[in-house]
Amino acid sequence: MNADLEQRAQAFADAIGRAMPDDGLAQTAIPGLWLIRSSQPTEPLQVLHEPAVCIIAQGAKQVMLADRSYAYDLAKYLVVSVDLPLSGHVTQASEQVPYLCMRLDLDPVLLASVMMERGLDRARETGIGRGLLLSATEPELIDASTRLVRLLQAPGDIGFLAPLVVREIYYRLMLGEQGESIRRIAVAESRTQRISRSIVWIKTHYSQPFSVETLARQAGMSPSAFHQSFKAVTSMSPLQFQKQLRLQEARRLMIGKAIDAARAGFEVGYESASQFTREYRRLFGQPPARDVARFRERDAGALPIAANSML
């Protein structure tokens, strides 16, 4: 990392540190902006991550999508272009140098507006990229992010200035090395957006059976093209995607509502308790009852990040 980026990063970290003095995750007064802080490394956490850009000011993190691992820090930022079930954990953090991260949700309508206003070309449909991207962090993106976070110290300026800075951040993203993938989010009929709509359907109807043929028809694609595109974006098949959503929701029900494993499995769509337990253990590493007990025994300081399903 060059000295110029390190200096800008310090200003970025200072801005997040002032706005986020305690560990946890906070939704800020700026729509779509979240801040995350952790003073220690965390255990892997499975979450459903919505489309967003995550820019680290300090510390480091590792994210897993299916069987692929992505490590990032200040030098690289993370873009999630569609809803994805991910596993992530903070790898570098301490009391003296806490993990500090900014998450900004991505709005396809606003992305399209920025793209058209600046005369940026539509992304080519020569292929479809993975829904999780890592890109080199540029100084201009750090500067814009710092200005956005600093607005939290001037509430009276947020209404007028925050939308302008968000548009600048979107613009920087679309000019970056993954700009073509970002622009696909803004095009309603791109294959990325058609797969995204199918993901939203599965997310809404995760407890119900479905056929790939039905989803393909809704997306306006052949079953084979749909299956190939879905796997390219999510690194898993539609049925594997549904399974992860079911298991994550079952875990949330057991932890948040204190219901037993049999009932949780039934509520998310499983008809066989043994199958639910087997697949739960495969994803989370332990049977449901033991996993929930371990989760509840964790240090309470780690729970705000876990409970809000953010990375």
Largest sheet: 6 strands, antiparallel
Q: What's the count of strands?
A: 10
**Number of helices, where a helix is a run of at least 4 consecutive DSSP H or I residues:** 13
Indicate the low-confidence ranges by residue numbers. Answer: 299-310
What series of H and E elements makes up the topology?
Answer: HEEEEEEEEEHEHHHHHHHHHHH
Radius of gyration: 20 Å
CA(first)-CA(last) distance: 23 Å
User: What best-fitting shape do the alpha-carbon axes yield?
Assistant: globular
What portion of residues belong to β-strands? 15-25%
Determine the mean pLDDT: 89
How would you classify the helix and strand content by structural class?
A: alpha+beta
* Strand arrangement in the largest pleated sheet: 1-2-9-4-7-10
Helix content: 40-55%
Brief write-up:
By secondary structure, the protein is α+β, with helices and mostly antiparallel strands.
Protein architecture, described:
With 311 residues, the chain is α+β, with helices and mostly antiparallel strands. The chain is 50% helix and 19% strand. It is built from 13 helices and ten strands. The protein has helices at residues 3-19, 108-117, 139-150, 155-175, 179-186, 191-204, 212-219, 223-234, 238-256, 261-267, 273-284, 288-297, 303-307; strands at 24-27, 33-38, 45-49, 52-58, 60-65, 68-72, 76-80, 84-92, 99-105, 132-136. The protein has a six-stranded antiparallel beta sheet with strand order 1-2-9-4-7-10. A hairpin with a 2-residue loop joins β5 (60-65) and β6. α1 (3-19) packs parallel to α3 (139-150) and α2 (108-117) crosses α4 (155-175). The chain is globular, with a radius of gyration of 20 Å. The two termini are 23 Å apart.
